[in-house]
Amino acid sequence: MSGYGVQVSPAARIRTARPDWVVVDHSVPGTPLKALMPGFSSSPRTGQVVVIGNGFVDAYQGIDGYAQDLRTAVLQVVAEGRTPVLTGVIGTPNPPALAHEYNAATHQIAKEYGLAHAGWGEAYREGDASPDGIHRTQAASDRLADLLIQAIEKGQDE
């Protein structure tokens, strides 16, 4: 959600598109889900919807237990009476070796628990990446934010 390299972050785009929403960004860019899990249950959350957008860094590092950690995070959010929404593992021109597998896990978990999924893994288009081949152009970042808005709205309807 930090929007590395873009002028308008996804969080800012969502705030502009949905001014009646309170958007609190707790993202920790570059951090695998495994590193977040020890403190996840006690992390402060106040939102009705909790977006879980991990997986890209995990797929680069080949971290074991990704699906189980994601499932644990989802169950924690549900136990709190909140609605989890998954983004999926973002697509790139040269994805990490495990990106497809980890993205498939996000879809499977969304299906298992009836969660909304933003489909970020399927949203990559030629030219979406900045010169580093990983981070998004502004247009691509905006499109991902719009997909997330749709998923959040869908998640609130279910």
Characterization of this structure:
The chain is mainly alpha-helical. Helix 2 packs parallel to helix 4.
The biggest sheet, with number of strands, parallel, antiparallel or mixed sense and barrel status, is: 3 strands, parallel
Cα-atom Rg, whole angstroms? 15 Å
Structural class: mainly alpha
Average of pLDDT: 89
Tally of DSSP helical segments: 6
Low-confidence parts lasting 5 or more residues at pLDDT below 50? Answer: none
Q: Give the H and E element order.
A: HHEHHEHEH
- Portion of residues within helices: 40-55%
Which strand-content bin applies to the residues? Answer: 5-15%
Using the alpha-carbon principal axes, give the shape: globular
- What is the first-to-last residue Cα distance? 24 Å
Strand order of the largest sheet: 1-2-3
What is the count of β-strands? 3
Could you give the topology of this structure?
Layout lengths: L9 H8 L15 H8 L8 E4 L3 H6 L4 H14 L3 E4 L12 H15 L2 E2 L20 H20 L1
Parallel strand pairs: 1-2, 2-3
Helix pairs in contact: 1-6, 2-4, 4-5
Briefly, what is this?
This protein has 158 residues and is mainly alpha-helical. The chain contains six helices and three strands; from the N terminus they run H-H-E-H-H-E-H-E-H.
Characteristic key phrases:
45% helix; 6 helices
